[in-house]
Amino acid sequence: MLDNFLNILPDPYHWLVYTPIGAVIIVLTSYLSGSLKLKYHLKTNYTRKIFHFIIFTAAGVIGYFSGLQGVIVFGSVAGVFIMIIINFGIGNLFYEGLAREQDSPHRSFYLIVPFVATAAGGLLNNLVIGQFAIIGYLVAGWGDAVGEPVGVRFGKHKYKVPTVVKVDCYRSIEGSLAIYIVSALAIAIVMIVVLEISALVAVGVALVSALVTAIVEGISPHGIDNFTTQFFSAMTAYGLLLLF
What we know:
The protein has ten helices and two strands, in the order H-H-H-H-H-H-H-E-E-H-H-H. By secondary structure, it is mainly alpha-helical. It has one domain. Strands 1-2 form a two-stranded antiparallel ribbon. Helix 2 crosses helix 4, helix 6 (about 110-130) runs parallel beside helix 10 and helix 7 crosses helix 10.
């Protein structure tokens, strides 16, 4: 067990290469999100998900080329960055681009919890199903990212979801439908391009896995869905492939 754990720890090469790459991606993406919020008055529901989309996509690309070691470095840089912007606090460009006003008075808490949930989901998937974890990255980064903006803009059929601490949080059927469509696309792309699975099988698995993902996301407590969407999308796809 100890040997397996030590094998996933990044070596000096990964720290040297992916620390600056991660820092540049994270800082520039956060700056973009914050600028759109403070200078152009875009809602945090949108700016946060722009960050979400780019960062998860970057994790998928890094995971493809370097495996879990590169992703751990990237995630470590992200964790340090989150702690720094929380210290900056309300009014800071980086903080405002990511922390939702409707999470008040727990805006910082809902930066930390999704990060921890993301790290837990990615690590667990990598340890159990290896490269299939990339499915989870893109589902969380694309499917989950599109659900909130669609729900804010077009959501007419809303329902309240549980939260880790007391804030009011609502999701919508329209947002869940968007998650289903984009998650199916993300799963199919990873299976065809990365895992080299036949298109027919990939599409069939993607449609079922995305449905499970959308349902799970819809009932997940606020802040925990970065774990549940990653875990259930990748694990469902992997399990279904064992049946073929």
